[in-house]
Amino acid sequence: MSKQLIGSICLTDLIDFAKKGHTSFAKADNGKIYANVKVWLNDTKDKFGNDASMQINPKADTGFVFEYIGNLRFVEPKITDVTQQDIQEMPDDQDLPF
Question: What percent helix, strand, coil does the chain show, rounded to 5?
Fold first, then answer.
């Protein structure tokens, strides 16, 4: 079963690393600039509830290091039980717009 992760990337740091010439950035044939990243899943949630972390991934032997740029969490579905009242409050077919 697939799982989704949501999170954020610090765009300010990412741009700063690009301007400093960090080797994780590459320009593709289409003219776009890409950042090579490294993502790993934590064995347990960190103190902020994150399940994964993200770093920019430098080319080997360049002197640049892995720099943190973001964190991720698993999307956890929020399922609640339907009550009889919920069903009674549903509109009947005549209220539907089609």
Answer: 15, 30, 55
